[in-house]
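Dear Dr. H.,

I hope your travels went smoothly. While you were away I took the liberty of generating a structure for the chain from your last submission, since the lab meeting agenda had it listed for discussion. I wanted you to have the full record in hand beforehand rather than looking at slides cold. The sequence, exactly as received, is reproduced here:
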Amino acid sequence: SMNIPIVRKPGFEADDVMGTLARLASEQNISTYLVTGDKDMMQLISDNVFLYTPGNRFNPTTIYDAEKVKEKWGVGPDKMIELLSLLGDSSDNIPGIDGIGKKTAAKLLQEYGDINTIVKNIDEIRNKRVREGLTNGEDKLDLAIKLVTIDDQVDINVAIDDLFKQAMDNESLKTLFNDLEIHSLSNTLINITEDKSKDNPIIEEKSYTSILTKESLEKFVSSLDSKALLSIDIETTEINPITADIVGLSISLKPNEGFYIPVLFPEKDSMKEYDLDLVFILNSLKGVLEDSEYKKCGQNIKYDSLILKRHGINLRGICFDSMIAEHILHPEKNSYKLDNLSLAYLNYKMIPISDLIIVGEYDTMLDVPLEKIAYYACEDADVAFQIFNIQKNILDEMNLEKLFYEVEMPLVEVLIDIENNGVYVDNEIISELCLRIKNEIKIISEKIYSISGYEFNINSPKQLAEVLFDKLMLKMFKKRSTSVDVLKKLLDYHPIAQQVLDYRHLSKLVNTYLEKIPNYINNKSKRIHTSFNQSITSTGRLSSTKPNFQNIPIKTDIGKSIRKAFKAQNKNDIILSFDYSQIELRILAHYSKEEKLINAFKNNIDVHTKTASLIYG
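The corresponding predicted structure, in token form, is as follows:
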């Protein structure tokens, strides 16, 4: 797609092909830059050939000529083959001479000129280790030279004129980058193509309107047709739907069209014609939003629904969510952001949030001028509407409608209720447990200090390594590693290993759960409103964030104590626990039609006992 010429020759390495191309170019007096970090390639450097070693965050980019090679290695490019033959290279399986390092190899070549002369004068070499290394390894040198030498005479059927840079296939590249989820390169490509087409830009004609008066809002609502699909997006002050304030609402009914109803914006007090308020806006829209005849779609519409639910509106008629549809179509993706979907489906670059929230200028959505936020909000609703029209057809083609419309979309409404209701957590139990475990951590710390003979930061791998390997002289399984694996191996060698493992386990419980969980308790409801995600796990399981309820430990006594804090808020209420019995094995029985497995389930026999009895007779 980038139209970069590729030159291959079976039986030869890329180094040989590059060396041959460099020679051919030099013969035509063309300068060549070999882009590589491979030191072997330095043998090719000449007046016309340079080595371009790309930099990284630790080292700058370096362009090597003959002088720079001599600076680095002590010899010029013409002696690099012999120098590398003396040194050897374990990564390329090239044998070297024992006792010879970089400085010694350079010194020998400077003194004797070449390897043959060095070998002839072995007896003159004063350094015993070097002399013995050369005596024992002399027979390896011919092989080493052969392995190090780059063949610049490869018979490749290519002319220099075939290698001119061609224009990239931008359309193909955009598709490829989006398929591979290389979004940063996709954005870079769009910027490049935009720069090239500034004289004749292709701009989508957008019809985005701000509704600023009660009269225009009533007129808009009365014009809505119950047969039309409404794409909805709500702009808010933060990402937590339980505490966020509404900044504005946008609705799209047609491609490239959108309406924005602002609630909070910086010009609000100075704009005379604006006579709306949140209560009037929501009351005006309530009938349409709660009427299931009016179908609604959006991107992560659960978020918008939760916002509305807090304001007394139950969003009904939810029929499509582009984020969930994309997850079903591409469960392997790790991002379902609308910006990326827009590039993938519409080849349209949306306004990034970074263009709105600018530190020191517009720090929050509340600071963004009406014109900017109106366009941004309408674009969200509009793009989600356009993507719906494409995704629905793909779901149909891939026979995924049943899963999407009968399983995933109805689940959205269930999750809205669950998240809105939240879960009660007894903060008293959490606080008492936190205090008790902190005391246990203190006792364990004292034991560790007593064993080590002094106080240190147990959380510091460096300081812990000093205690374990320098002070206590324990066995080092990995170089100065204090990982859990290493500590478990040290259990047989010293009691400090168990103390450190206990310390880490309890510290994690305190830092991850006991100190964090109370921060998630909502001041008004006194409950935790976690977020359940349908589009994170590729297997289709739900995941839970802010906080993650699914990784609270259950097997340890302390883990069970933490879970006891999750309880019914009222005395007369109860918590019911449901679990599918062997759901995976039931699916297996259905699809495999395995009689014994089916009979075990039909007769309510423990499937594991039955399997064991069949295996062992």
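Two observations you may find useful: Residues 153 and 530 are 66 Å apart (CA to CA). The longest strand covers residues 229-236.

With kind regards,
E. W.
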